[in-house]
Design goal:
Strand order of the largest sheet: 1-2-3-5-7-9
Order of helices and strands: EEHEEHHEEHEEHHHEHHHH
Number of helices: 11
Shape: globular
Helix content: 40-55%
Distance between the termini: 24 Å
Length: 263
């Protein structure tokens, strides 16, 4: 991995660290590309059952897009800005959202702009009580472009989302919890242990079932209920002949410990 991304694997959990602390872990093009490459590596590594995503240093999870690099793309016109910035950022958040292994954000500091959009896209999030969130793109004269206009209203509701999107005002971890952006607020020193405990609560279960739940929820959110139920049925059908479902049923009937072999 490039120095822009650090990847450590321990006990079936991959820890990805956004590693530009001197720039508050701003999302430049190289960092985004390296993050996507790390996800590709993790996806095919059968040892890895969950992902924790955090930022380097004590100040920031990610301050959002690298504005200097983005400004260079804007100066080259709409086509270049869309290709290099918008599509790259949207591909990143879509990849995180649809990833078949659970991704848990550990928000260790400010999560502004694209950092907040990553938080919206991942499956679960735990935040330090020292963190701060914001949707500041309106201050630049633009809307969010990594999915924030779409995911935030789905999480928080239209009116709460619009207040955050239209004012650009920072908001607290407690407000993020209330809006559904994060699952828990913990003392700063407890952040990584809390994220790891959450990951371990998930990795004790069948990786095939975990992936099926993520896929059914992610795809179904954007569908009518009837279509979503069809996705749910398809995900179940794909598991009927699997070792994991057979083992789960046999263990339940015999009242014995599960023995999953992984995916």
């Amino acid at each position: 991995m490039s120095d822009a991304i650090l990847l450590d694997i321990d006990d079936a959990i991959a820890l990805i660290t956004l590693n530009r602390p001197e720039r508050l872990n701003a999302l430049n093009y190289d960092l985004i590309d390296r993050l996507m490459a790390a996800l590709d590596q993790i996806e095919t590594d059968t040892r890895i059952r969950a992902v924790i995503l955090t930022g380097a240093g004590e100040r920031a999870f990610s301050a959002g897009a690298d504005i200097h690099e983005f400004a260079d793309s804007v100066r080259l016109g709409a086509n270049t800005a869309l290709r290099d910035f918008v599509r790259r950022g949207q591909a990143m958040t879509a990849r995180l959202e649809a990833f078949r292994k659970p991704v848990i954000a550990a928000i260790n500091g400010i999560a502004f702009g694209g950092g907040c959009e990553i938080t919206e896209a991942v499956h679960l999030a735990v935040t330090s009580d020292r963190a701060m969130f914001a949707k500041p793109e309106i201050n630049l004269g633009m809307p969010p472009t990594f999915g924030g206009t779409q995911r935030l209203p789905r999480l928080a509701g239209r009116k709460r989302a619009l207040e955050l999107l239209l004012t650009g005002d920072p908001f607290s971890p407690a407000r993020a919890l209330e809006a559904g952006l994060v699952n828990a607020v913990v003392p700063h020193d407890e952040l990584m242990p809390a994220a790891r405990r959450l990951a371990l609560r998930i990795t004790r279960h069948s990786p095939l079932a975990v992936g099926s739940v993520i896929t059914a929820v992610t795809r179904g959110l954007n569908m009518a209920i009837a279509e979503g139920l069809q996705v749910e049925s398809e995900q179940f059908a794909a598991l009927v002949s699997s070792h994991d479902l057979g083992e789960g049923l046999a263990a339940w009937i015999a009242r014995r410990r599960l023995s999953y072999r992984g995916n």
